[in-house]
Specification:
This protein is an alpha+beta fold. It contains 18 helices and eleven strands.
Length: 491
């Protein structure tokens, strides 16, 4: 496991180091694999977090147990749980998970005694934050009372009474536990929501105090037995944002005045209250995740959406586009190929040797009941001849404006020149040779793509300008992106 957190100068060990002792390592691996299998049967399970000796490398011994939290999304619970209280549900999920591990009762008690299940939803986070605020207010009142009444002259009996009135902190450690080493990416949803809620508090001092409480919880269960080994746990709220919510952190850092910061707080508040739709996730990402479930084990849809922007960073087309085909399996394996590479003959609108895509999530010619494979992709289009805004009735040139007519005639001239070139070059060219020469002529004119409503919307002239989503290459690159950009390590 590689720690991705940028270490401070006074740290000398990665925060999360999986157990190295063979028995402990096998136990941890069994737990991690068990979580992944359990999630497949129970998609409402967000994953787990691990703390204690199992994330302290050589500190774990043969007899070390697995200290962990099992988190369940209360918002997506099956309907049969509607009439059960939270404690019963949490107990059942813990019991069912342990059964799925196929461990004996003795092993369960010995090695998983500190496994705790926890339901999470919006209200659970609100309750935790409110509990922390109430405790802080009570402590302020208590300290003031002590300053007034606890003096040298106060009778001993009264002193003892005052001391016994000190408020007790009863916050749920499972909320702090979300920020230990995670197994599965589902917990990211509530990590970020918690930070957004804390960030939206009107009192910045309270924001820092709440994170300070979390920090001390994390430090208590993660610090090493050897005092010379130092690890880096986010100590301030800004450090927590940098590690666990980098997008929000970057946005906040860009704000240079109080008015903009206030506006951002309001936007965050609206988001977690459900008043504002999250616009960070590209349209179509949900389809890619549905078709490729393994992506959710790597990162979140939001992370995937950000990752897509890095594939062709200079492309003017940022949307996910689609290709409908009967050869979906081959494309997922080998990538796109032009008509000439496939050995086919172009027909109709396919008389350019290129790759044809559309922004439409439904096949134009086959409709919603299409049996064609739907391939999602992102493309590189830096310099397109752009006819995308023109009417489908472009053949009626009398309806075009003067500016549009110039563009359309330029397109037709290049198109026809390719045809002429083919006849000069091949004397009696085939359709595929004509299609190739048309593509070559667009490239010579400096274009890498065509945006044309009659040509399937988006035409890219080279397969290198395409990246198939959900392919083996895509999954590998997404893993690399998450590994580089995430500031927390997955066990």
């Amino acid at each position: 496991m590689g720690e991705q957190i940028i270490s401070k100068a006074n740290t000398n060990e990665r925060r999360f180091l999986p157990a190295t002792e063979s028995s402990a390592k096998a136990r941890l691996d069994h737990f991690r694999n068990g979580i992944k299998s359990f999630q497949k049967e129970h998609p409402e399970v967000l994953g787990a977090t691990v703390y204690g000796s199992m994330i302290k490398g050589e500190q774990a011994k043969e007899s070390s147990d697995v200290d962990a939290f099992l988190y369940i999304d209360k918002e997506t619970l099956p309907i049969e749980n509607n009439n059960k209280n939270d404690e019963v549900i949490e107990s059942e999920y813990r019991e069912n998970f342990l059964k799925s591990l196929n461990v004996t009762a003795e092993e369960s008690s010995r090695y998983y005694g500190d496994l705790r299940s926890k339901l999470l939803d919006n209200q659970v986070l609100d309750n935790d934050i409110n509990t922390r605020i109430e405790y802080d207010n009570k402590m302020k009142a208590y300290k003031k009372k002590m300053e007034e009444k606890y003096t040298y002259e106060t009778p001993e009996e009264e002193k003892n009474k005052l001391l016994s009135q000190e408020p007790r902190f009863t916050s749920d450690f499972a909320i702090s536990g979300m920020f230990h080493a995670r197994v599965g990416s589902g917990i990211e949803k509530y990590r970020r929501l918690f930070l957004e809620k804390v960030r939206a508090l009107p009192d910045n001092e309270m924001t820092e105090k709440i994170w300070k409480d979390v920090y001390f919880d994390l430090k208590t269960y993660e610090q090493r037995a050897d005092p010379n080994k130092k690890i880096d746990i986010p100590e301030t709220f800004n450090e927590a944002l940098r590690v666990y919510h980098p997008d929000l952190y970057k946005n906040l850092m860009k704000e240079k005045d109080n008015e903009k910061i206030s506006e951002l707080k309001n936007n965050i508040f609206k988001q977690f209250k459900g008043e504002e739709k999250d616009t960070k996730i590209k349209e179509g990402v949900d389809f890619v995740f549905e078709q490729n479930p393994e992506l959710s084990n790597i990162g979140t849809p939001e992370e995937y959406s950000n990752y897509l922007d890095t594939i062709f960073p200079n492309s003017k087309i940022k949307d996910i586009v689609y290709h409908y085909t009967s050869s979906g399996e081959k494309i997922m394996r080998d990538g796109f190929k032009s008509i000439s590479e496939l050995g086919g003959e172009p027909t109709g609108t396919g008389d350019i040797d290129a790759i044809f895509l559309t922004k439409s999530p439904i096949s134009y010619w086959a409709g919603e009941k299409s049996t064609f494979d739907k391939i999602a992709s992102v493309v590189e289009s830096k310099n397109a001849i752009d006819l995308s805004h023109l009417s489908q009735e472009m053949k009626d040139e009398n309806k075009l404006s003067e500016e549009d007519l110039i563009t359309y005639k330029k397109y037709k001239d290049i198109f026809n020149l390719g045809y002429d070139n083919a006849w000069v070059k091949y004397k009696n060219p085939t359709m595929i040779q004509i299609a190739e020469e048309r593509k070559n002529e667009f490239v010579k004119q400096g274009y890498d793509s065509i945006l044309h409503p009659e040509l399937y919307e988006i035409v890219v002239l080279d397969k290198k300008q395409t990246h198939v989503l959900g392919s083996e290459q895509d999954i590998k690159k997404f893993k690399e992106f998450v590994s580089k950009s995430k500031q927390t390590t997955t066990l």
